[in-house]
Amino acid sequence: MAKVEVERRGPVTLVTVNRPEVHNCFDGETADLMTAAVDGFAADGDARVFVVTGAGGRAFCSGADLKAAGTLVARQDASRTAPMGFAKLDPGKPTIAAIEGYCFAGGLELAAWCDFRIAGDGAEFGCLSRRWGVPYVDGGTQRFPRIVGLGNALYLLETGVRIDATRAFSMGFVQEVVPRGRALDRALELAEAISSSPGQAGIRADRASAISAFDAPLADGLEREGRAGLETLSDPELAEGLRRYAAGDRPEAPRPAGGSA
């Protein structure tokens, strides 16, 4: 079995970090395979949503394999992708993390790389590599503040505190907490809802505009939003969606799972 498994489920690409014996941590080979999975998803015109999870149920990802850290920084593609193989990549389409068990260190960075996160109620989070003085070089220092705010980000980064799914939800790092073992099912449900929505070009334009909001003044962001959004108005999927609306079609919107509303 490969250290990263990629499975197509219709328009959804399911990527599983498959090193359960070491809590799904990354060595150089794992990073290369993750890069290939992200690049492949980005290039596949029929793939609409990327879901990443960890094998075995005990861990989503515990970060870099510190016994093989040299294989990460020595990767030929590390400068383009960052050491673990994903942080500098943007596939341009929705990404979801399905988290069970340990989500630590670089695993927290992998989760933060995703657009949003679904967690089983037994999941745990933290910058635990702080115990060994390991810095965050796979996006954590940039994405954590954007997701949870500066105070919470520095609390995690500086203390190395270990928190549960409820605390991660209250911080805004996790968007839904579901019963243990249900995170992947719920992530796939949401992925299916996203991938079946009309106007995929509009979803991608909104995503890009939202992400870029942190890198530009508000006025520039509003200009980008209008430009990118208006360009999607000629999308045939949008026209079909509007036709269905005019005909009275009102599909049920997804609702948050469990007690995370």
What is the count of distinct domains? 2
Q: What percentage of amino acids are in beta strands? A: 15-25%
Protein structure class: alpha/beta
- The backbone outline, from C-alpha atoms, is globular
Overall CATH architecture of the largest domain = Alpha-Beta Complex
The CATH class of the largest domain is identified as Alpha Beta
Mean pLDDT over all positions: 91
The CATH topology of the largest domain comes to: 2-enoyl-CoA Hydratase, Chain A, domain 1
Assign a percent range to the helix content.
Answer: 40-55%
Sheet with most strands: strand arrangement? 1-2-3-5-7-10
- The ordered H/E elements are EEHEEHHEEHEEHHEHEHHHH
Describe this structure in words.
- The structure is a single chain.
- It is built from 11 helices and 10 strands.
- With 261 residues, the protein is an alpha/beta fold.
- The protein has 2 domains: 192 residues, Alpha-Beta Complex (2-enoyl-CoA Hydratase, Chain A, domain 1); 47 residues.
- A 6-stranded mixed beta sheet has the order 1-2-3-5-7-10, with helices on both faces. It has a 4-stranded mixed beta sheet with strand order 4-6-8-9.
- α4 packs across α5 and α9 packs antiparallel against α10.
- It is globular and about 60 Å long.
Output the keywords.
261 residues; alpha/beta; 2-enoyl-CoA Hydratase, Chain A, domain 1; 2 domains; six-stranded mixed β-sheet; four-stranded mixed β-sheet; 42% helix
